[in-house]
Design goal:
- The structure holds two protein chains of two kinds.
- By secondary structure, chain A is mainly beta.
- In chain A, 8% of the residues lie in helices and 39% in strands.
- Chain A has one domain (13-134).
- Chain A has one helix and eight strands, in the order H-E-E-E-E-E-E-E-E.
- By secondary structure, chain B is α/β, with parallel strands linked by helices.
- The two termini of chain B are 19 Å apart.
- The mean pLDDT of chain B is 96.
- Classes of the chains: A mainly beta, B alpha/beta.
- The structure holds zinc ion.
Amino acid sequence: MSGYNKPLPLITPLSKVFYDACRDKKLMYQQCNDCGEIIFFPKHLCPNCMSRNLGWKESKGKGKIQTFTVTYEAAPPEFAADQPYALAIIRLDEGFRMMTNIVECDFNTLSCEMPVEVVFDAVTPEITLPKFRPAVK
Amino acid sequence: MGSIRGKAAIVGVGEVPTGMYPERSFIDAAVTASEMAIKDAGIPKKEIDTVLPIIVVANPLDNANMVCSWMIEELGLGKTAKSNFMVASGGSSSANALKTAVALITAGLSKAVLVVHSDRLGTGLDLASAITQFAKVSTSQEYEIPYGFSQLALAGFLQQRYMFDTGTTERQIAAVVVALRKWAALNPNSIFYQKPITIEKVLESPIISTPVRRRMMNKLCDGASAFVVTSATRARDLTDKPAYVLGIGSRCTNFTVTHQPDPQKAWAPAARDAYRMAGIGPGDIDVAEIYDAFPTFVLMSMEILGLVERGAAGKFVEEGHTSPGGKLPVSTNGAMMAQGHTGAGGGPALLVEGVRQIMGKAGERQVPNVKNVVVTGSGGVGMDFHVEVLGKEV
Ligand SMILES: [Zn+2]
């Protein structure tokens, strides 16, 4: 895995919680303990009520494709060797959205609103990235 | 809340040709566009007490120097100017600059404001660096950078969902490019001057990032433009054809594309505010200068502006109504798709073109009997939506 040369996420005290959980194959999001707001990207301050009383929750990792694109050319240079690759925005069932890659599928079968589920890709010993694949029935 | 309706006007515009100009320096382009705008306005330069440069993308040092009053010295405004400050919100910088200028003038804090943009995305930055640089802006460093997002992927995301929601065809998306290229073919400042394209040519170009094809992408260019804003009273001394600012509306909604709300729901209120302030409706618009970057955004914006029903924009464009001679000309300079993408310069270029249409200075592109023009702007990955109504009469 030492050959991984694509950009890695910025690790902060907050994002470390998220990526530590990914290493254990858990997809985490936050909910405000005061107003119930579902929060992603993780934050310290609730964007709805400005409470700092936020809690982590584990997502079931199921959702639908809001939109996607399969990049064949002109990707950022670090991703050129991966072309074609599928990038998507997923609406998780718990009510948050995230950008990710769709993997383990024929890209020609992808469509908006397709059900997907999380898979975990351990790209380095420290970093595991949540990715998605078409949901297995 | 007071209305700024008709209290300020754009009285002069300037623009250098958009394209690949390795010999033209950044500052020469900025000064030339400013000189043209000031001379076009016929305003003594000592009346310009505020300069608002717009964010520069290709070169951080040029950007920093524009922040640090480079234009004040170049234009010899040091004895009379009160402020130089940058307005930076990506593609909506010009919209925010116009809003700021109108507010300063209406409040009596400025007599005349020069808004100026220059950038060298065509020759001042190699394409790989440009792709890398744009790919990392407006994305989360913690949660998105690992996945390979780019501006091209953004175009793919929006086109994919828009086609899914509305049933718009690929041919209709291609028709947007064709319509913009028809306008650009009449625009001597465009990189595609006298170079129209056919739908077939667009559709036979390869897929770059689904469902976007190569010829649905814009081209990075060098360019510069400028305009002068002053009070309506002063404007009437200077010209018999000021472009009055009749209405302004805007909404700012998100940082990343992941969290972009439904554009119709979230941004249509910006159009409503602008129309209400102007005292008109979408049916009163003669020309729409719509911010693009890529063709889907033109279609989405036409619907947000209420110029067509939701989902009907593609058919409307395909039928030729937005092309030269059509009943609703859209983006008569060719917009970024066809004039060229100059960073934050797509916005001021459209404002400059809207003013030309009002003032009767649009040459071969002049639309007859123009009374009201609507102009849009949007920054980041579609983080906001700005609408301005310009009019010939108050
Ligand atoms: Zn809260």
